[in-house]
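Quick one: structure tokens for this chain, please?
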Amino acid sequence: MVGEGRSEEVVQVQDKRMINIPSQIRLKTEFFEGYGVEELIKTIIVLGVSSIVAYIIYLFTRVTLISTLFVIGSVVIAVVFLTKNRNNFSMADNIINIINYELMQKRYKYERGNFNKTETTNKNTK
């Protein structure tokens, strides 16, 4: 009996049927809840861009504290914005969804057509 139940689970996977996975089980490697490899790569990109901007700020101001705080602040903000919640949405995902919703067409102009075209053509022929 126990072996049969296990073989049914394997057959379901081999048939590529949908299997419900509990939300506590993560499918990707995560460093902490909601922050995985994909978010780390995005944060490293933010770190690189902010380092370049911080260097340009340093060239103009010659103050290392402002540049350093800019880099640290941008990385912290990136981590907060990219960390996904239990619904698998991050703040960045929510902002993108809001922008897409605002840009979506909401008004549909409708012109009523003449559905009685056959009657008008019959009147003209008489």
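The two ends are 85 Å apart (CA to CA).
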